[in-house]
Amino acid sequence: QVELVESGGGLVQPGGSLRLSCAASRRIFSSYAMGWFRQAPGKEREFVAGINYSGESTYYADSVKGRFAISRDDAKNTVSLEMNSLKPEDTAVYYCAARYSRGHAVDVIFDHGVDNWGQGTQVTVSS
Tell me, what's the pLDDT at 58? Predict the structure, then answer.
């Protein structure tokens, strides 16, 4: 079982930036796609961004495209989400996710499910 631990959440003003990080308990990156999801109060959990096992392919939800960037560091067993130009509607609990896959089509990898979830980190965008 792989454990995922998120960090970096917090309170930020609209237009500000935050960087989320997710640390894995063991070296899984060679065969796992990594992603970020979020869940706002009263809403279903939604996909935000994903990166394939090799780091060659990324995919973003339309709502964050051009503002968020996902990256991975295999040497450190981490995946990060750089969030810029934050809006109040970005407020949510953000979850790190792992899916066993050596595919490149990140837009469909997580449609097949998630193998491991982190515990979540709160991001609040408010003035």
Answer: 97
